[in-house]
Amino acid sequence: MDAVNRAVVEARDEADALRLWLRLFATANRVEGELSRRLRSEFSMTLPRFDLMAQLAKAPEPIALGELSRRLMVTNGNVTGLVDRLVDDGLVERRVAKEDRRSAVVSLTSAGRALFDTMAKAHRGWVEGLFAGLDDASRAALSTLLKEARTSVEEAT
Amino acid sequence: MDAVNRAVVEARDEADALRLWLRLFATANRVEGELSRRLRSEFSMTLPRFDLMAQLAKAPEPIALGELSRRLMVTNGNVTGLVDRLVDDGLVERRVAKEDRRSAVVSLTSAGRALFDTMAKAHRGWVEGLFAGLDDASRAALSTLLKEARTSVEEAT
DNA sequence: GGAAGTTACTTCAAGCCTAAAATAATGGCG
DNA sequence: CGCCATTATTTTAGGCTTGAAGTAACTTCC
């Protein structure tokens, strides 16, 4: 096979959706695993609980469980369990909404807020470190392409 | 803020590692969830089991559990359970390696091979469909950048 | 006001996943 | 040969996740 044909084959290869998906999955998985391990070993914290706390931290007021489940893109039952464990740990407070007694709203306790601030700082540093091998141009390009990909997926479902 | 400064801020924003990671995670999660749901509803199959079968399908001969766990990037104990369930379903065969009695090697049964071929065809189509909104150039660029990202992560760990 | 439908959350069963401890077989090495 | 370290797998405890079924509170509409 000559150089031109090799290039053609490689180009087709790089554009192959299945290969793209495998690469996307592998990369995301690798990062997630690493962050998960570090959260566990440094703070005895899990990534799902950290993510939940992050939602509470950036919200100006308590959030209902349903809203939380939408923002985290997980099922309602899942959120129920995560909040249960965070409440057990004294990091989150659950209260019945006064205007709708079906609804439970949650917020960080002061201990939760303090721990989150510490963890968030470390977490940001870890993510920076993991992507340190990419320059700003690559990061920006990757970010843009991922947004396009996300849009493509949304439209296809 | 003038236009130049807005552009500067936006560029910094797009290059922010944390934002990049959140986007990567969200995209991968969305695709994974969709493929998972379709495998379940169309074939009563889970994504992890499908992935395991894919490894067996492309291997020329039976694979040891340890090798499988490396290729799938999951722990040994995880593979043990997945194989157990696939054996229960008659899709995979587990045998003690003749040259090393500690080692168990697995391969697809003929039923497993047949089911996998059917599923793989559908799966490929689904992935193509999900990424149909990206043209070849975008796909190739995304793939290349993901490879860079993966390398960056590997180097940072 | 009350039946019927909807909405918010919880519970349940099943499966995935990890880290760590336990088993079992191998491979040196004295 | 027999002890010891290593290697391959399994087991266990704990946590995450989903989809489906269940409970309770709210809303609509007559």
Automatic annotation (TrEMBL), chains A, B:
Lineage: Bacteria, Pseudomonadati, Pseudomonadota, Alphaproteobacteria, Hyphomicrobiales
Pfam families: MarR_2
InterPro entries: HTH_MarR-typ, MarR/SlyA-like, Tscrpt_reg_MarR-type_CS, WH-like_DNA-bd_sf, WH_DNA-bd_sf
Native source organism of the sequence: Acuticoccus mangrovi
Protein name in the entry: MarR family transcriptional regulator
Keyword Transcription carried by entry: yes
Keyword line: DNA-binding, Transcription, Transcription regulation
SUPFAM superfamilies to which the protein is assigned, alphabetical: Winged helix' DNA-binding domain
GO molecular function: DNA binding; DNA-binding transcription factor activity
Domain HTH marR-type span(s) in chain numbering: 14-151
Coiled coil: none
One BP term from GO: response to stress
PANTHER family in the record: HTH-TYPE TRANSCRIPTIONAL REPRESSOR YETL, TRANSCRIPTIONAL REGULATOR, MARR FAMILY
